[in-house]
Specification:
Elements (H helix, E strand, L loop, with lengths): L8 H7 L2 H7 L22 E6 L3 H11 L4 E7 L4 H10 L4 E3 L2 H5 L6 E4 L6 H10 L3 E5 L6 H12 L6 E4 L6 H11 L6 E9 L22 H4 L10 H5 L10 H18 L7 E7 L12 E8 L2 E8 L4 E9 L2 E5 L3 E6 L16 H21 L6 E4 L7 H13 L7 H20 L3 E2 L1
Parallel strand pairs: 1-2, 1-4, 2-3, 4-5, 5-6, 7-10
Antiparallel strand pairs: 7-11, 8-9, 8-15, 9-10, 11-12, 12-13, 13-14
Helix pairs in contact: 3-4, 6-7, 7-14, 8-11, 11-14
Length: about 450
């Protein structure tokens, strides 16, 4: 990996923020690492896959997948017929489409499937896919509840060697690989705490999506879409905006926090559910009938490490992961990693000495410099370093890693246990919000 030339601490402080540093170094951008490559297929050896759910995220996954070498989409399933047309437009007119996902799973020629349904369908489809002998890429959050996540992990264990990769692409990002390298090498000393934040400020960012213009009970199997949730009359807005209701989705926690927590787990090596979670927030702006909060602040505790998560749909703020240690900070933004080392010792005599009488202060300063100047000479303050790379949001490396695992049978980068731990933080945060108390694992 390449490293940018040093940026002086004075210049960093003058810049005033990580964002300003990014602008300051814009002309010096370098690629941190080559993206993941699919294992070279043997002649005529093509991974045949299907996709279940071709909505916003599913269509993005499909576009990404079919652009990779050595793979072919064979079938696509969605309960809305308009997405059958979309699947063919993306992957070719020979793609077989159906409303019934079991028809995709029954195809013995299909090796793996992408599951990009609404959250409340994840468990059933994934368990059925594993039982059908398919490897699975499941969109985040892996589960819709803690119990469902545990069932999914058990299904993987009983699948005879099949796997689930969860779709939080940060774990395949060169930026988070660099953050992980810095943290594990001791560059920031002992891990002390983590700060995560993400803010949006638009109707689209708050999931007020426009329903498909032709949506009707004739081209959407609305009864099946609702699964075992108490049935409602046909409602195109629930179909398009399901993330706003806990019956179908997991709100900001499952849509946004899960990305942040997944990146945190990967970079810090924490692969566990939180010991406890406490959440405050409410519906302050988007009073459109939703029951999931649009402001949500959560504190998670992992052993001795507190992790704070600030989410909002009311104010645009940078998406940031900040890992704080006894010797410095690693901060990950959309396309940069900033390493700010700290000595963790006094670099000048104590300002408290200004309360000493003049002669006492002079004696204190003399003794302080005599003792500490040699130490400071041996440990000069390191420069801030900024690494630049492709956005952590790039799907291609993560999808490529999935197909690599299908071909080689090597472990996936984000397995079901990892996915269950990340989702557990979100479920515990939501439970704390609705129950109005701290929730323990």
């Amino acid at each position: 990996m390449s490293v940018l030339g040093p940026l002086s601490r004075r210049d960093f402080l003058r810049a005033g923020s990580g964002a300003a540093v990014g602008g300051y170094l814009a002309a010096r951008t370098i690629d941190l690492a080559a993206e993941a490559q699919i294992a070279a297929p043997a002649s005529g050896d093509v991974v045949r896959f299907g996709i279940i759910g071709v909505g916003t995220e599913g269509s993005a996954l499909l576009r990404t997948a079919v652009a990779l070498p050595g793979v072919k989409c064979v079938a696509a399933s969605d309960l809305y017929d308009g997405r059958h047309t979309l699947a063919k437009q993306i992957a070719g007119q020979d793609v077989r489409t159906t409303r019934r996902y079991h028809e995709v799973l029954d195809d013995k020629s299909i090796q793996c499937v992408f599951v990009a349904t609404p959250d409340f369908w994840h468990k059933q489809v994934v368990v059925d896919a594993l039982a059908a002998g398919k490897d699975v890429y499941c969109e985040k959050p892996m589960s819709h509840s803690l119990v469902e996540g545990a069932d999914m992990v058990e299904a993987v264990r009983n699948s005879g060697g099949k796997f689930v990769q969860v779709g939080s692409q940060r774990v395949s990002s060169a930026l988070f690989a660099k953050a992980k390298e810095l943290v594990s090498s001791g560059a920031i000393g002992d891990l002390m705490q983590v700060e995560l934040q993400l803010g949006r400020n638009s109707p689209d960012g708050a999931w007020e999506y426009p329903p498909p213009l032709d949506l009707s009970p004739e081209n959407l199997d609305w009864i099946t879409w609702q699964k075992d949730v108490p049935k409602k009359p046909f409602n195109p807005y629930i179909f398009a905006r399901w993330r706003c209701w806990h019956q179908y989705g997991t709100g900001m926690a499952g849509d946004l926090m899960v990305h942040l927590v997944s990146g945190m787990q990967f970079a810090t090596g924490i692969n566990a559910s939180p010991d406890w979670a406490t959440t405050i927030g409410g519906i302050f702006r988007w009073k459109d009938g939703r029951n999931m909060p649009d402001v949500q602040d959560t504190l998670l505790q992992y052993g001795r490490t507190p992790v704070s998560v600030r989410l909002t749909l009311t104010t645009e703020t940078p998406e940031t992961t900040r890992i704080l240690g006894s010797k410095g900070v690693v901060e990950v933004a959309n396309n940069s990693v900033t390493w700010i080392p700290q000595l963790g010792i006094d670099t000048s005599s104590s300002y408290y000495s200004q309360s000493f009488p003049a002669a006492m202060r002079a004696e204190y300063d003399r003794e302080w410099h005599e003792k500490n100047d040699p130490i400071l000479a041996r440990h000069p303050l390191a420069d801030v370093t900024v690494y630049r790379g492709p956005s952590w949001d790039d799907l291609r490396p993560h999808v490529a890693n999935f197909f690599n695992a299908v071909r080689t049978r090597k472990p996936v980068v984000e397995d079901a246990v990892f996915g269950q731990h990340a989702a557990a933080a979100c479920h515990m945060a939501n439970a704390s919000y609705f129950e109005g108390k701290t929730v323990r694992s």
